[in-house]
Specification:
The structure holds 3 protein chains of 3 kinds. Chain A is built from 21 helices and 3 strands. Chain A is mainly α. Chain A has a 3-stranded mixed sheet with strand order 1-2-3. The longest helix of chain A has 33 residues. Chain A is globular, with a radius of gyration of 21 Å. Chain B has a domain of 212 residues. The two termini of chain B are 38 Å apart. Chain C has one domain: Orthogonal Bundle (Helix Hairpins), CATH 1.10.287. Chain C is built from 5 helices and no strands. In chain C, helix 3 runs antiparallel to helix 4. Chains A and B meet through strand 2, helix 7 and helix 8 of A and helix 18, helix 19 and helix 21 of B.
Chain lengths: 495, 496, 134
C-alpha cells in the first residue's frame, strides 16, 4: 500500500477564496471596464493558484487544509487530490474563457444588472472549486448547497415570468433532493461510520447491511440532482432560460459537473469499489446511467430549440461519467473521469456557439438556422469540431474518453454497455450532423439570412474558437487530465 | 467584583428600570442611554460569569448570604452559563437596533417602553440564573407581565391578542406553581439541587409524577408547544417591532431552558426518561408540532405571522430533541436554544427594518425590496439559510445534532419531520425572495428603467442586524468549540 | 365505600381547590364577557393559593406567631417547638403569589378597558365579528 505524501498548505483555501473576495471589489467598482478587468484578474489568479498545486499532485501528493472542526470527527476541510485537481483545472480555466464570452454576450444584448451577474458568477465558481477540493462529505455538502443558492439569481437573471417558474423548478429539484435525500443519507452514514472523510477505499465498508447500504447508495445518486440523472433531470432544460454564458459555464461545466463529481466522489470515496462490487451495487448504477444516456439522447433528437437540445445532450453525456464508475474497471473509471474534462470543453463550445448565433441573429430554433454557416463560418466550424468531440470521433478529445469507456466495458465483460455506448454515439451524430449540414450546405434560396447578418462579436468568437481548439489539442495531448485520472484510478482500485 | 456577577446581572437592570422611569419624567432623551448602559453591564456580567463557570465549574451565589434551603441560591452551571450571555446580548443588540423604530411608532411612550423592557430582561435573566423553583415562578411572572405590557402597545388588534396571551400565560404559570407545590409537599424544599437530592427515593410516588407532568404542561403552554401554541402568532404579529424582536427570540427559548433544567437537574434523566414512559409520546407530539408549524406557516400571507409560526416549528425541534433521551439529541436541543434565538432575532430585526421603511409587513408590501434595501435583505438571506439549515450557518449544525440524535434513538419519524420542515422553509423563504426580487414584471424581460436607488433603513438599525447575521455564520463555524467546552458539561454524565 | 368516603373527607382541601380551578377554567372558556373571563382567571389563581395555604396545616397547631416573643428571663431561651405552629413558608410564598395575581388582574383589566375603548363592547363574540369585518 503506497503511502501518500500529505502537504498542508493554505493554497486550496486561497483558490476557493479568490473569487469570493472578488465580490466586494465588484460591488464597489465604478464602471463596467474596471469591473470586467477585476473579473479577469480574479479568474487568472484562481487558475494560477490551482495550477501551482498541479506539480505536487502529479507527483502523487495530496494537499490538505483544515478550516474548522465543527462536529466531533468531522471538520470543514479541503483536500486536493488528483480527481479534485482535474475538476478544478477544468472549471477555473473555463471561467477565464467564459468571462470573456460574458462580456461579449452581455454587452451585445445590453443586459441589465451585470454587476449582480458577475458577482454571483464569482460565488458560483468559489463553490465549484470548493466542491472539487472537499475532503469530506460535510464540506462537499456545504459547497454544493452554496452553489445551488449562488446559481439561483443567475438562472433567474431575466426576472420575467418564465425565469420565475424555471427558478422554482430549479430550486425544487436541486434543493429538494439535497435536503431531502443527501442530508439524511449523510447523517446515516455518519451514524454508521463515525466519520465522513473521503478515503480511497470508501469508509462504509462493514458498517451496515446490504439493504441499508443499497438504500444509501440510491439516496446519494438521486440526491445529487445536479448530475441530471433521470428522473430528476427536468431542471436542466428549464434552466436554459438563463443567459447563454450562464448555461454554458454552469450547466455544461460547473453545476452539472459538480453533480457528477459528487456522485463519483461518493461512490468511490464513501462506498468504495470493493463495497460496490460485493453488494452488487454497480448493477443498478449501470442500469440507471444507461437509461439516462439512451432516453436523453432520444429526447434530444426531437428538440427544435438549440439550447434545449444541448441540455438533453448534456444529460445523456453526464451519465457516461456515472457509467464509467459503475463499470468498476480501471479503464472504465479512467474513461468516466477524463470525460469530465473532454465533455466540458466540447459542450461549452457548443453553448458558446448557440449564444453567438443568438447575439448575431436573435434566433433560438434550429429550424430557423438553415444556411447560417455561410454567414457565420467560424462559429459553425467551431460547432462542428465540438460536436465531433461529443459524438466521440477523432481527432477530438471526446474520442479518447469514449475509447476508454468502451475498453472499460470490455474489461468488465459488459457487452450490453458497449452497445449502449455505440447507440448513443450514433444518436449524438443523428442530432448534430443534420444541423451542421443544413447550416453549411443548402440551396441558396432556402438560406434564411440577409446579408446584414455577420459573424458574432470578437469577444464571443475568441473564446469559442479557443475551446474548440483545446478540444482538438486534447486528443493529441490529453495531459494533465489523463495522468491525473490514472493516479486517481490507481488509488481507488487498490494501489 | 466578579464574585457579584450573578447578582449584578439581575439587580442592575432592575434598578435601572426605576431610574429610567424617573429619568423619563425629567427628560425623555435620558431613557435610551440609561437602558442601553444597564443592558451593557448585564451583558458584560453574564459573559464574565460564563468565563468563571468555564474555569471553576458550577458557581453558586447565595442571595443575602442565606444558605439554602432557607435562602434563595443562584445556581450557574454550563447550561445557564451559556443561556445568560445569549439573553443579555440579544436584548442589548435589540435595544440598539430598535431605537429609531421606537421613536417612530410610539414616541409618547418611550419612557414606559424602556422601563418595561428593562424589567422584562430582569425577569428573563432571573429565570435563567436562579436555582430556586419558587423564585423561578416569581421571575416568570415578572417577565410575563412586562411582556404583556410591551406587546400591547402595538396596533389595534394587539390588545385582544395580548389578552389571549395573558390567559394562556397565566394558566401556564399557575400550572408550574402547582407542580412546584406538589414537589414542596413531598420534599419540603424549594431549592432545585436540594430537591434533586431528595427525589430519587420518591420516583414512584404519584405526587412526583403528577408534579412533573403538571410542570411540563405549564412550561409547554408558555413556550407555545403545539397544540398549546394558539396565543403566539397573534400576540407576536400585532406587537410593535421593537417588542416582537425582543420577545420572539427570547421568551420561548427561556421556557425551553426551564424545561431542560427541570429534566436534567431537578428530576434528572433517570426519572424523566427511565422511571416514567413519557418520552415516546412527547417526541410524537413534537413531530406533530414541527409538521403543523410548517404547514400553518405556509398558509400565511404576511411576513411576521409566517415567522411566528416558524417559531412554533423551532420549539417543536427543541422539545423533540430534548425528549429523544440521548446525549446527542439533548446537545442539539441546547445548541438550538442559542442558534434559534439568534436566527429569530435576525428575522425579526429584518421585519423591523422593513416596517420602518415600508410601514407594512404583508407580502404585498415587499416587491422590489432586494433593490431598495440590499443590506437588510442580505441579512434576511443569511437568516433564512440558517432556518432552512444550510451550512455553514449555525442552524445547520443544530439540525445536524437533532437529526443525528433522532437516528441514534431510532426515531425516524422525527428525522422525517425535521427534513420536511426544512423543505417547507425553503418554500416559505423563497416565496418571500421571489416577491422581493422580481419587481412587478412586464414582458420586456427586465430591461425597464428601474426608478429609485437604495433606500435602506438607518445605520443604527442595519449595523446590529449585520452583526447578528455575521454571528450566525461564526457560531456555525465554532459549533465544535461550543459543544465540547460548554454544552457537553451541561448534560449530566448519566445521559448517554 | 367507607374507605372511599373517608379518603374524600380527609383530602377535602384537594377537592375544594380542584373544584375552584375547574370553575375558574369554565368561566374562562365558556363566558363571553371579557371581565367574566378575567375573573375566572383570578379564581383559577386563587384556587392554587388556597391549596398551598392548606398544605401547611398541622393537627393541633396554631398560627405561626411566636408567643413570649421578648421573653422574661428563662422563657426567652426556650426552644421553639415546630410542631406547635403551622408551616409559615407556604403563607410567605403565597403572599408573593397573591401580589402576582393582583398585578395580573390589573394588567388584564387595563387591557380590557383599552379593548372597550377600541371596540365599544366587552363581549368577545362581538369583538371578533368587528375584527372579521375589517
Amino acid at each position: 500500500m503506497e503511502t501518500i505524501e500529505t502537504i498542508t498548505s493554505i493554497k486550496p483555501l486561497l483558490a476557493v477564496l479568490a473569487s469570493l473576495l472578488l465580490v466586494p471589489i465588484l460591488l464597489s467598482s465604478k464602471g463596467p471596464n474596471i469591473r470586467e478587468s477585476w473579473t479577469f484578474v480574479a479568474a487568472g489568479a484562481k487558475f494560477l493558484i490551482v495550477l501551482s498545486m498541479l506539480p505536487a499532485v502529479l507527483e502523487g501528493a495530496e494537499i490538505v487544509f483544515t478550516i474548522a472542526e465543527v462536529v466531533p470527527g468531522v471538520a470543514i476541510k479541503l483536500k486536493v487530490d488528483a480527481f479534485g485537481m482535474l475538476f478544478a483545472l477544468v472549471s477555473s480555466s473555463l471561467w477565464i474563457v467564459t468571462s470573456a464570452y460574458s462580456i461579449g454576450y452581455m454587452r451585445g444584448l445590453q443586459e441589465h444588472s451585470q454587476t449582480r451577474y458577475f458577482c454571483f458568477f464569482a460565488l458560483a465558481l468559489s463553490a465549484t472549486v470548493g466542491v472539487a477540493f472537499s475532503a469530506n462529505l460535510l464540506t462537499l455538502y456545504l459547497f454544493y448547497e452554496m452553489l445551488s443558492f449562488a446559481t439561483y439569481p443567475l438562472v433567474t437573471h431575466h426576472q420575467d415570468r418564465e425565469a420565475r417558474s424555471s427558478g422554482r423548478k430549479y430550486l425544487l429539484y436541486i434543493v429538494g433532493t439535497s435536503i431531502g435525500l443527501v442530508l439524511p443519507a449523510m447523517l446515516i452514514s455518519y451514524n454508521l461510520a463515525g466519520t465522513l472523510d473521503f478515503s480511497h477505499q470508501g469508509f462504509l465498508a462493514g458498517t451496515g447491511s446490504k439493504t441499508l447500504i443499497g438504500l444509501l447508495c440510491f439516496m446519494f445518486i438521486f440526491g445529487f440532482a445536479k448530475a441530471g440523472i433521470m428522473p430528476f433531470h427536468s431542471w436542466l432544460p428549464a434552466a436554459m432560460v438563463a443567459p447563454t454564458p450562464v448555461s454554458a459555464l454552469l450547466h455544461a461545466v460547473a453545476v452539472v459537473k459538480v453533480g457528477v463529481f459528487s456522485v463519483v466522489r461518493v461512490l468511490t470515496g464513501v462506498f468504495g469499489t470493493d463495497l460496490l462490487l460485493s453488494f452488487d451495487l454497480w448493477m443498478p448504477v449501470i442500469y440507471i446511467a444507461s437509461f439516462t444516456i439512451l432516453v436523453g439522447s432520444f429526447i434530444a433528437l426531437s428538440q427544435d430549440n438549440l439550447k434545449r437540445l444541448l441540455a438533453f445532450s448534456t444529460i445523456a453525456q453526464l451519465s457516461y461519467i456515472v457509467l464509467g464508475v459503475g463499470l468498476l474497471s480501471p479503464k472504465g473509471l479512467t474513461g468516466g473521469i477524463v470525460h469530465i474534462a473532454m465533455h466540458a470543453f466540447g459542450k461549452i463550445t457548443l453553448f458558446f456557439c448557440a449564444g453567438a448565433i443568438f447575439v448575431a441573429t436573435g434566433k433560438k430554433n434550429i429550424s430557423e438556422m438553415v444556411g447560417i454557416g455561410r454567414r457565420m463560418p467560424v462559429t459553425l466550424a467551431a460547432f462542428f469540431v465540438a460536436s465531433l468531440s461529443i459524438i466521440g470521433m477523432p481527432p477530438c478529445g471526446g474520442f479518447l474518453s469514449k475509447w476508454y469507456l468502451a475498453l472499460g466495458s470490455l474489461e468488465a465483460h459488459q457487452m450490453p454497455i458497449l452497445l449502449v455506448l455505440l447507440t448513443s454515439s450514433l444518436l449524438n451524430a443523428a442530432y448534430f450532423m443534420p444541423f451542421v449540414y443544413k447550416a453549411f450546405f443548402c440551396v441558396p434560396k432556402d438560406a434564411m439570412f440577409e446579408n446584414t447578418v455577420r459573424e458574432a462579436p470578437a469577444f464571443c468568437l475568441v473564446p469559442l474558437v479557443t475551446t474548440a481548439l483545446i478540444s482538438v489539442i486534447l486528443f493529441f495531448y490529453p495531459q494533465p487530465f489523463l495522468r491525473l485520472a490514472s493516479i486517481m484510478v490507481q488509488r481507488i482500485t487498490g494501489g | 467584583m466578579s464574585q457579584q456577577y450573578p447578582a449584578l446581572l439581575v439587580i442592575v437592570p432592575l434598578l435601572s428600570a426605576l431610574a429610567v422611569a424617573v429619568a423619563g419624567w425629567v427628560n425623555r432623551k435620558w431613557c435610551f442611554p440609561l437602558a442601553a448602559a444597564a443592558l451593557a453591564v448585564a451583558a458584560w456580567s453574564s459573559v464574565g460569569l460564563l468565563f468563571r463557570v468555564l474555569h471553576e465549574g458550577v458557581v453558586i451565589y447565595q442571595l443575602g448570604g442565606w444558605p439554602p434551603p432557607v435562602g434563595i441560591a443562584y445556581y450557574v452551571d454550563h447550561l445557564n452559563g451559556l443561556v445568560l450571555p445569549l439573553v443579555s446580548i440579544v436584548a442589548l443588540l435589540n435595544i440598539m437596533a430598535s431605537k429609531k423604530s421606537v421613536e417612530q411608532e410610539f414616541p409618547d411612550k418611550i419612557c414606559a417602553f424602556y422601563t418595561l423592557y428593562l424589567l422584562m430582561v430582569t425577569g428573563l435573566l432571573g429565570i435563567v440564573v436562579t436555582g430556586d423553583a419558587f423564585n423561578l415562578y416569581v421571575l416568570l411572572e415578572i417577565a410575563a407581565l412586562t411582556g404583556y405590557g410591551l406587546l400591547a402597545i402595538g396596533e389595534k388588534r394587539s390588545q385582544l391578542a395580548t389578552l389571549h396571551y395573558l390567559y394562556m400565560g397565566t394558566i401556564g404559570a399557575c400550572f408550574y406553581l402547582l407542580g412546584v407545590g406538589y414537589l414542596y409537599i413531598v420534599t419540603g424544599s424549594l431549592n432545585m439541587v436540594d430537591i434533586a437530592e431528595i427525589l430519587p427515593d420518591l420516583y414512584h410516588s404519584k405526587a412526583v409524577i403528577a408534579s412533573f407532568i403538571i410542570c411540563m404542561v405549564g412550561v409547554w403552554l408558555k413556550m407555545a408547544f403545539f397544540p398549546l401554541h394558539a396565543w403566539l402568532p397573534n400576540a407576536y404579529t400585532y406587537a410593535p417591532s421593537a417588542s416582537s424582536s425582543l420577545i420572539a427570540p427570547l421568551v420561548t427559548k427561556v421556557m425551553v431552558y426551564v424545561m431542560i433544567r427541570l429534566i436534567l437537574t431537578v428530576f434528572t434523566p433517570k426519572f424523566a426518561f427511565a422511571a416514567i414512559v413519557l418520552s415516546d409520546a412527547v417526541v410524537w407530539l413534537a413531530v406533530i408540532a414541527v409538521v403543523m408549524g410548517a404547514i400553518l406557516a405556509l398558509a400565511e400571507r404576511d411576513l411576521k405571522k409566517m415567522s411566528a409560526y416558524i417559531i412554533v416549528t423551532e420549539v417543536g425541534y427543541m422539545v423533540g430533541g430534548a425528549w429523544l433521551g440521548n446525549r446527542i439529541g439533548m446537545t442539539g436541543a441546547i445548541l438550538h436554544i442559542v442558534n434559534d434565538a439568534l436566527m429569530t432575532l435576525c428575522i425579526f430585526l429584518v421585519v423591523g427594518n422593513i416596517v420602518y421603511k415600508v410601514k407594512g409587513y404583508a407580502f404585498d408590501d415587499l416587491p422590489g425590496l432586494f433593490r431598495k434595501m440590499p443590506f437588510t435583505m442580505g441579512a434576511f438571506v443569511i437568516g433564512a439559510m440558517s432556518i432552512i439549515g444550510v451550512p455553514p450557518t449555525c442552524g445547520f449544525f443544530s439540525k445536524w445534532y437533532l437529526i443525528a440524535g433522532a437516528i441514534s434513538a431510532g426515531r425516524y419519524d422525527f428525522m422525517a419531520a425535521l427534513l420536511f420542515s426544512s423543505l417547507i422553509s425553503v418554500v416559505l423563504f423563497f416565496r418571500v425572495f421571489e416577491i422581493s426580487y422580481y419587481e412587478p414584471f412586464g414582458d420586456s424581460h427586465g430591461h425597464d428603467d428601474r426608478s429609485g436607488g437604495i433606500d435602506e433603513a438607518p445605520v443604527t438599525m442595519v449595523v446590529p442586524l449585520l452583526m447578528v447575521a455575521a454571528i450566525l455564520i461564526l457560531l456555525g463555524l465554532y459549533t465544535d468549540y461550543i459543544v465540547n467546552h460548554i454544552v457537553q458539561f451541561a448534560i449530566p454524565e448519566a445521559l448517554v | 365505600m367507607n374507605d372511599l368516603v373517608a379518603t374524600i373527607i380527609a383530602k377535602y382541601n384537594y377537592w375544594i381547590y380542584i373544584t375552584l380551578m375547574m370553575a375558574g377554567l369554565y368561566a374562562m372558556i365558556a363566558k363571553n364577557n371579557l371581565v367574566k373571563k378575567i375573573v375566572g382567571m383570578n379564581i383559577f389563581q386563587t384556587a392554587i393559593i388556597l391549596f398551598y395555604v392548606s398544605i401547611g396545616v398541622k393537627k393541633g397547631a396554631t398560627i405561626p406567631i411566636l408567643e413570649h416573643a421578648h421573653g422574661h428571663g428563662h422563657d426567652a431561651h426556650q426552644a421553639v417547638h415546630a410542631t406547635d405552629y403551622i408551616n409559615p413558608l407556604p403563607h410567605v410564598l403565597m403572599l408573593t403569589a397573591i401580589v402576582v395575581g393582583v398585578a395580573t388582574l390589573g394588567v388584564a383589566l387595563a387591557l380590557a378597558i383599552r379593548i372597550y375603548n377600541t371596540y365599544h363592547t366587552l363581549e368577545e363574540d362581538e369583538i371578533l365579528a368587528q375584527i372579521r369585518e375589517e
